[in-house]
């Protein structure tokens, strides 16, 4: 993405369709895709580790990287002779990054809701059933998920009656939402 942003317009414009030649739209779209891919990669890497507040770590790391990429790409454009610095591009970069990160978070909330509360209505359920829930090491998401780490609760706060019931319900949900091992 960065090399494309540093090329002169005479090289890039013939390859871009006419309706997409709006510079701000391209900044927004590219940083949305960049942030969504980045946060998905970070979450996949950290999924095998048992961290408290993993979603917070992942989203803050992706936000910091997107912020630094926004400023550094515009700084590099100011250094080159064929490009110029534009502060509004930074704003569209950050807005696109926010949309990418929030879309990842919304999908994650839907995944967890389906995992722990059963079926979701309509097309959302079909979307979730079409996805695969395997982690890189082949563990099942329901087996590797620990609600106490995700919600910031300590395991000793769980009473002995709710923990086995939650585990039994989680196992019964595996077949209904399409969790694959």
Please tell me about this protein's structure.
- With 181 residues, the chain is mainly α.
- The chain has one domain (2-177).
- 68% of the residues lie in helices and 0% in strands.
- The chain is built from 9 helices and no strands.
- The protein has helices at residues 2-6, 9-12, 23-46, 54-79, 87-117, 122-130, 141-144, 147-150, 162-177.
- The longest helix is centred in the middle third of the chain and has 31 residues, at 87-117.
- The two termini are 34 Å apart.
What topology does this entry show?
Elements: H1 2-6, H2 9-12, H3 23-46, H4 54-79, H5 87-117, H6 122-130, H7 141-144, H8 147-150, H9 162-177
Helix pairs in contact: 3-4, 3-5, 4-5, 5-9
Keywords: Membrane, Transmembrane, Transmembrane helix
Transmembrane segments: 25-46
Organism: Chytriomyces confervae
Calculate the mean pLDDT score and round it.
Answer: 70
Beta-strand content bin: under 5%
The biggest sheet amounts to: none
What is the ordering of alpha helices and beta strands? HHHHHHHHH
* Distance linking N and C termini: 34 Å
Q: Decide which structural class fits the backbone.
A: mainly alpha
Give the count of helical stretches.
9
* Helix coverage percent: 55-70%
Q: What is the CA-atom radius of gyration, in angstroms?
A: 21 Å
Q: How many separate domains make up the residues?
A: 1
Q: Care to count the β-strands?
A: 0
Could you give a short description of this structure?
The chain has 181 residues and is mainly alpha-helical. 68% of the residues lie in helices and 0% in strands.
Keywords:
181 residues; mainly alpha; 9 helices; 0% strand; elongated; membrane
